[in-house]
């Protein structure tokens, strides 16, 4: 066993893939979910098939009391935490260019989960991470670095994640490393919702324009999360773009 890991928002998508990758590397993983109990149960079954001591804990990362209860459960056995993956996130339904149509309640909810949630979880985990000399990996997005087809609230929140990654690397150093991944267009349901009826055409075009010849998968992102968490002992405050070279060449 390599240690313990907490992955927020891990019932499906990137979080699920990261949890499975960490479990295959020998970590005991706690997955966290807010509403997707059925999906979390299926992911937990997959983790148990790999082997190890895994669990699923329901908690809303935007609620500090809920976060502290989650972290208390995660650290109850050993008082330490080796890896934290801040993946929990949400978005709004406002089209990217619709400034007048922004729903401010939705805006606040996006920031409560994507930004405040990240801060609350990291703060609650900090003592256990310091005890272990652990690592934090935040899940940002390419739209936190450059414009893209995502609602303004989501893009702005991911820019905040990029900034927090750099700031937290100083706050938590030298015992804890803090890095982030910034995925490009990921094949699957998230971009299907974002692009709608244009999904196949636009994803095909993006793949043709990408030096590595395809779009990103959740498994690609999970591999980079694992690498940042478990290796690279002198890397902190960095944001790794995972898009097959698209951003670097267009």
| DSSP strand tally | 7
Helix-strand string: EHEHEHEHEHEHHHEH
By CATH reckoning, the class would read Alpha Beta
User: Looking at this structure, what is the CATH superfamily?
Assistant: NAD(P)-binding Rossmann-like Domain
Rg value? 17 Å
Number of domains: 1
Distance between the termini: 42 Å
- Strand order, biggest sheet? 3-2-1-4-5-6-7
pLDDT < 50 stretches? none
Strand content: 5-15%
- CATH architecture classification: 3-Layer(aba) Sandwich
Number of H/I helices? 9
CATH topology: Rossmann fold
Shape: globular
Report the mean per-residue pLDDT as an integer: 94
What's the helical proportion of residues?
A: 40-55%
Structural class: alpha/beta
Largest sheet: 7 strands, parallel
Task: Give the topology.
Blueprint: E1 3-7, H1 13-24, E2 27-33, H2 37-50, E3 55-58, H3 64-74, E4 83-86, H4 104-132, E5 135-139, H5 152-172, E6 177-183, H6 189-195, H7 199-209, H8 218-230, E7 239-242, H9 246-249
Parallel strand pairs: 1-2, 1-4, 2-3, 4-5, 5-6, 6-7
């Amino acid at each position: 066993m390599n240690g313990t890991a907490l992955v927020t928002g891990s019932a499906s998508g990137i979080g699920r893939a990261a949890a499975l990758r960490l479990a295959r590397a020998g970590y005991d993983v706690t997955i966290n979910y807010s509403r997707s109990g059925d999906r979390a149960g299926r992911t937990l079954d997959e983790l148990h098939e790999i082997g190890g001591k895994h669990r699923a804990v329901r908690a809303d990362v935007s609620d500090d009391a809920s976060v502290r209860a989650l972290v208390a459960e995660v650290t109850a056995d050993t008082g330490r935490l080796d890896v934290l993956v801040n993946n929990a996130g949400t978005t709004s339904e406002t089209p990217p260019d619709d400034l007048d149509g922004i729903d401010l309640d939705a805006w606040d909810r996006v920031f409560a989960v994507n930004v405040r949630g990240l801060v609350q979880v990291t703060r609650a985990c900090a003592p256990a991470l310091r005890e272990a000399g652990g690592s934090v990996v935040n899940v940002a997005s390419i739209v936190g670095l450059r414009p893209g087809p995502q609602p303004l609230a989501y893009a702005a929140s991911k820019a905040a994640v990029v900034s927090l990654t750099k700031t937290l690397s100083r706050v938590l150093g030298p015992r804890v490393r803090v890095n982030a991944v910034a995925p490009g267009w990921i094949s699957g349901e998230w971009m299907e919702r974002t692009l709608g009826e244009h999904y196949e055409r636009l994803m095909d075009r993006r793949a043709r324009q990408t030096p590595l010849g395809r779009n990103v998968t959740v498994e690609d992102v999970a591999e980079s999360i694992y690498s940042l968490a478990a290796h690279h002992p002198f890397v902190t405050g960095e944001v790794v773009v995972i898009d097959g070279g698209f951003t670097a060449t267009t």
